[in-house]
Design goal:
The protein is an alpha/beta fold. It has two domains: 98 residues, Elongation Factor Tu (Ef-tu), domain 3 (Beta Barrel), CATH 2.40.30.10; 156 residues, Nucleotide-binding domain of ferredoxin-NADP reductase (FNR) module (Rossmann fold, 3-Layer(aba) Sandwich). The strands form two sheets. It has a six-stranded antiparallel sheet with strand order 4-3-6-1-2-5. Strands 9-8-7-10-11 form a five-stranded parallel sheet, sandwiched between helices. The radius of gyration is 21 Å and the shape is globular. It binds adenosine-2'-5'-diphosphate. The site of adenosine-2'-5'-diphosphate has 14 residues, from strand 8 and helix 10.
Length: 283
């Protein structure tokens, strides 16, 4: 006997979301076997500041005893700018990671869970006015900067905008390289940010385990002074420089130490200073 209620006409037209806080995947791009990015619909009421993160995820496996499913959520920086109609995320794929082992298989039309409560420290409000802003990233830590670099305020606030991105292999730089290329060539972005402002943007990619035009950890390149020489800029100083850091834990700590040695102090939303740090999602 079939005891399922018949599907009503209204249900056919407007399917009931299967997940709480559901958003629909609109695009997925696989960059390497370890990295992918995806775009999802944006809740109409979601407002965020470029650089912030939200909790996103999928339903976990059913509990073997109760059969109940719980949401499996992780913090993800929003990689799209605050004016974008959709939301973009950039993620690592960990084959035995609880979330990313599943998330890496999403397809357009699938649903993910997105809790619409953006927070984070990598925001302009947490920095005092300065002349030059540095965005230091490793791996997927470039995500919040993908948002900030498409935000006109970044260029309005500073005379120079420098993004450094360090990855193990050259293929892992691709997302960032295309982002920078796109910012400089996309008609809409050029119109929004302005060519004069875009001239302030400098991109400094490096690799550590595979040959590329610039090799080395950014921390070593700072210590040796090579970074400043390559860019033709003065060393970091609290009078002129502001910085945001996002990468793996060891990198964050080492860079923090270097900035402190240079006299920069850590800021927060409630107490803006010279630099801010956030850990990139790792799972
Ligand atoms: P390395 O290859 O020398 O470890 P991961 O993929 O492990 O998150 O690393 C991303 C990038 O960050 C790699 O190029 C890695 O270099 C670099 N990295 C890791 N730890 C540090 C650190 N303490 N300081 C600077 N760079 C680091």
């Amino acid at each position: 006997m079939n005891d399922q209620a018949p599907v009503t006409e209204a249900q056919k037209i407007r399917p009931v979301p299967t997940l709480p806080d559901a958003q629909t995947v609109t695009e997925v791009k696989h960059w390497t076997d370890r990295l992918f990015s995806f775009r999802v619909t944006r809740p109409a009421s979601l407002r965020f500041r470029s650089g912030e993160f939200v909790m996103i995820g999928l339903m976990g496996d059913p509990d073997p005893k109760t059969g109940k499913q719980k949401p499996l959520l992780r913090a993800y920086s929003i990689a799209s700018p605050s004016w974008d109609e959709e939301l973009e995320f950039y993620s690592i794929k960990v084959q035995d990671g609880p979330l990313t082992s599943k998330l890496q298989h999403i397809q357009p039309g699938d649903e993910i869970i997105l809790r619409p409560k953006p927070v984070g420290t990598l925001v302009h409000d947490a920095l005092l006015p300065g002349k030059r802003v540095w965005f230091f990233a490793t791996g997927t830590g470039i995500a919040p900067f993908a948002s900030l670099l498409r935000d006109p305020q970044t260029y309005e606030d500073y005379e120079e905008v420098i993004i450094t991105h360090t990855c193990r292999e050259a293929g892992e730089l691709q997302y960032g390289a295309e982002l920078i290329e796109n910012i400089k060539s996309d008609e809409l972005l050029r119109e929004l940010i302005g060519d004069e402002n875009l001239a302030k943007l400098r991109y400094y990619p490096t690799t550590t385990r595979e040959e590329s035009p610039k090799m080395g950890r950014i921390t070593d390149l700072i210590r040796s002074g090579e970074l400043y020489k390559d860019l033709g800029v003065e060393p970091l100083s609290p009078e002129t420089d502001r910085a945001m850091i996002c990468g793996n834990l060891a990198f964050n700590l080492e860079l923090k130490e270097l900035l402190e040695e240079a006299g920069l102090e850590e800021g927060a939303n409630s107490d803006p200073k010279h630099y801010v740090v956030e850990k990139a999602f790792l799972d």
